[in-house]
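Changelog note: in this version the structure field was regenerated for every chain. One regenerated record is shown below for reference.
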Amino acid sequence: MNKILVFIVLVLTVNDISGQSSARKHMPVDTIFKLNGVVLPVNVTTVTPNYVSFNVPGKPGEYTIERKEVHKIIYKSGRIDLLNDAAFTVLDDSNWEAVWLTEDKKDVAELYKLGEIEARSPSSARSPSAAKKGAIIKLKKRAANMKGTIVLVTHKQTTGGYGEYPGYYIRGIVYGPEPPYEGADTSKNTKEE
């Protein structure tokens, strides 16, 4: 009888330890809600009177934004810090700068798929770097309009050669921390600006 009791205690202990290690692999992240509507799934490291510092899961380095840009932070523990009241909702394209591009599927594993988008460089681009920058800005603006925070790049292509104007094409899948709203068009967004 004692051997059976010891065996049951050992099985329960091993099961509890393995459950804790798998829970660590899928730890939730903190969420920063900016005043302009951008939602950032990150790990907050420091909150000072002037700045909020954070790490992006799976990426090296620490990022900092001004505290006055942050509406609230919801920590993975469930605690909520309200930093600034929103006087009104900002409805503009300025939040496109917070959209990140990635080619690693691990970066979007915990996020919701919002749809596919693509962009081409403007015909006014006169250098390869300007063509690439223009296409990326268009792509980020489209992702921001879909309330996305990360774009998983699936295809990119440089065009133009000697004596031709440079061009750049980029395509990807938009992901965000919240599911798409009902009735959202998650099909390919190919409209040129």
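Spot check on this record: Strands lie at 30-34, 39-47, 51-55, 63-66, 70-74, 80-82, 100-102, 112-120, 150-159, 167-176. Helices lie at 2-25, 128-145.
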